[in-house]
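User: Assemble these into one structure.

Assistant: Restating your components, then the assembled model:
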Amino acid sequence: MWKEIEVSILNDLSEVESLSSIEREAFGDIAWSTDILEGELKNPFSKALVLLIDGRTVGYLLYRVIEKEGELLRIAIKPEFQGMGCGKLLINSLLKKLAKDGINGLYLEVWEKNEQARKLYQKTGFKFLYKRKDYYKLGEHADIFYISLREACHDQGCH
Ligand SMILES: CC(C)(COP(=O)(O)OP(=O)(O)OC[C@H]1O[C@@H](n2cnc3c(N)ncnc32)[C@H](O)[C@@H]1OP(=O)(O)O)[C@@H](O)C(=O)NCCC(=O)NCCS
């Protein structure tokens, strides 16, 4: 079994290639390129959390915080590590961090047919807010979810 599990903020842009390779494995032909990831990480409001298992990068998430609200932009786990709780671990680490930083809540947008991702978000406490019709293309809608970190913290005793 795994010996060392670590979640850390990505500080070194030279590691963006490892995120890019997870993107390609997890998203296939809709993966973000290294250039898009690098561009996003150069945005002063954006950060990535990286999950390392026994020294190997197996997943990451990308988020933005502006003022007191956050947005989850992307999350991906290497296919052979999916369904083992890695996604939950990454999101829960982010929620804890943002709650400690005094952020009010976190939004995200997900393709309505991405069952795996929707379940992950529901399991980590996100609530459905509304649907954005034809967001991806005609007939492909996005669902917007939100979690209030004040409530989540109150329930889970984060402070
Ligand atoms: C979506 C994704 C990030 C989930 O991460 P994960 O590590 O596989 O998820 P977890 O193992 O933490 O599971 C969280 C919950 O999701 C659900 N889930 C996990 N694998 C599932 C599967 N294969 N089918 C349906 N639901 C699943 C379960 O309800 C699970 O909770 P439970 O274990 O308490 O029942 C990952 O599957 C992934 O990288 N997918 C491709 C990229 C993607 O679609 N990203 C999200 C859109 S930006």
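The mean pLDDT is 94.
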